[in-house]
Amino acid sequence: MARRILVVDDEPDIRRLVQEALSSAGYDVTTAANGKEAVRMCTSFLPDLVLLDIMMPDADGFTVAGWLREKPANLTNPIIFLTARREIDSKLAGFRSGAVDYVTKPFHIRELLARVQVHLKEPELAKDAPPSPLTEREREVVTLLSDGRTYKQVANAMRLSQSTVRNHLHNVYCKLGVVDRAQAVIVSRDNGWI
Predict the structure, then answer these.
(1) Cα separation of 79 and 119, whole Å?
(2) Domains in the chain, CATH or no CATH each
(3) Considering Cα of 117, then 121, then 127, then 128, what sign does the dihedral take?
(4) What would the pLDDT profile of 60-111 be if each residue is shown by its tens digit?
């Protein structure tokens, strides 16, 4: 039977990216968009591991971790924080709240899979590259930008407007959880998508 993982994040693109990567690695994955939904899911889905965002609108991840450890969920399995918060105080608060690990965004899918495997005490990492969340057009934009081209040069090469190139890049940032083109290139290269 596949190990069950609950992904809790208010960003739909992050939920989808992580769900697709974990599912392709053989895990049974479900998602929740907020803390209250996570508690409901946890009581019926009974996850072997929870990936939990910290910054969410209804309650922060530290609070949600506490909810998951209490009744009715009574979660005793590992919680890994998956968040954009990089401050040491935030990391320490995460560990004090009972998390076994803390992964910062932007993250590398292969690293996340490795951490999940370690905390689930899985014997071997999946050897295949995770699926790309990017469309073919988005990968082409990132590939051209990785060569050091400007927006204008990318637009000319793809026969698009600069505005369309920016829109594609904005979608890439959202899907990968990154904030600039350099990070988008690094994450895409590290995961074998470009």
Answers:
(1) 9
(2) 4-119 (3.40.50.2300), 136-190 (1.10.10.10)
(3) negative
(4) 999 999 999 998 888 889 999 998 888 999 889 889 888 999 999 988 888 9
What is the sign, positive or negative, of the torsion defined by CA atoms of 183, 189, 192, 194? positive
Structural contact between residues 134 and 172, judged by C-beta atoms closer than 8 angstroms: yes
Q: How far apart are CA 19 and CA 29, in angstroms?
A: 6
Spatial CA neighbour of 133 closest among 179, 82, 187: 187
The half-sphere exposure of 150 on its side-chain side, counting CA atoms within 13 A, is 3
Q: Which two tokens stand for residue 190?
A: 């590290």
The Cα 153–Cα 45 span in angstroms is 49
CA 53/CA 2 separation, integer angstroms: 23
The predicted pLDDT at position 59 comes to 93
- Can you tell me the distance from the alpha carbon of 127 to that of 148, in angstroms, rounded to the nearest whole number? 30
Per-residue pLDDT band at 126 (split at 50, 70, 90): very low
* Amino acid identity at 88: I
Average pLDDT of every residue of the chain: 88
pTM for the structure as a whole:
0.65
